[in-house]
Amino acid sequence: MNVVIVDDTPTNLQLMSGLVQRLDGCRPLLFADSGSGLWWCLEHDPDLIIVDYMMPSPNGLEFIRQVRREPRHADLPILMVSADHEKQVRYAALDEGATDFLNKPVDGVEFLARARNMLALRRSQLALAGRALTLAEEVRRAVADIHDRERETIIRLARAAEYRDPETGSHILRMTQYTELIAARLGLPKDFQEMLLHAAPMHDIGKLGTPDHILLKPGRHTPEEFEIMRRHTLIGYEILKESSSRAIQLAASIALHHHEKFDGSGYPRALAGEAIPIEGRIAAVADVFDALTSERPYKSVWSLEDAAAYLRDHRGRHFDPACVDAFFDCWGGVLEIGHRFDGA
Ligand code: C2E
Ligand code: SIN
Ligand code: FE
Ligand code: FE
Question: Which positions fall inside the HD-GYP domain (predicted)?
Fold first, then answer.
């Protein structure tokens, strides 16, 4: 324990120093010059300050005021040494934040008793602070655990859907990476971009509810079949909606909106323009580009050029122009993602 003693009278300093040395585990730090003492206290971590009142500037009151201005020292025990009859000084010292007083001239027994009390107070403060730190660390770990588990749940849900979807995992991964690319280029917040990575893989989770003979049909759908196929957006939304997880809320919105079109000709609700949430407009570009450049039971692979031409032709019709532009601005990244997940 660092016990700082500030007193401009050398004999007092010597006397109190000798007393402090009799306390277990205490190291006296002596300052005859209150300015130097103050500087030391602001730069270091004293455990107890004993400060005389009557000194050349800063006097005891100013000293305490300066120390208390340091947030670290808000609860630090400070004893002020003053004569018992200096009532006004004592009241002022209480206002500045003195913890207790020592009578002048210093009496050894009283000094030791009060110093011991103050140090006991200090020890319990330190123990409490330590406990608070441990608690904060435990909370942090628990929250990280919850996040990990939430992520795991999302991945398992997406995996369940993959079992029924004729599309392979690498299609979903590519589509997801494209959404992040577009969101980054649009300057959307970093945590939104990150949530997209968890949410976008579930955009077609509603296909779990599409009958096999429609989902897996080797040829084109009849209008009646397509009508049923379209329900995958609403089914996905029903599966994911009302979650307390922000990532799953985002996934619900993507499931619901990824087949809306910018000109209002999409489904399920024929929303137009900015009435379609941004995540839906982003997912539409990523999803269609991925579908076109992939093999499907009902269509063959399109070349990158043809797929790019399709996005350009339907800019402002099927797609939000800003999302198409962002996608082409990142063309290098698009090609890189195409190569990286080229396993299907
Ligand atoms: P998907 O195969 O992943 O296709 C996603 C979206 O990409 C389609 O949404 C469509 O906007 C676009 N797309 C895919 N292939 C083509 C294409 O050859 N030409 C053009 N112009 N656009 C294409 P859409 O049409 O709402 O379809 C949603 C999902 O319904 C498709 O996901 C697929 O799973 C299924 N689907 C749609 N039409 C057929 C079909 O004729 N036969 C079968 N078996 N499934 C279909
Ligand atoms: C959502 O946007 O995910 C909520 C459903 C709605 O658009 O009505
Ligand atoms: Fe879809
Ligand atoms: Fe899709």
Answer: 146-343
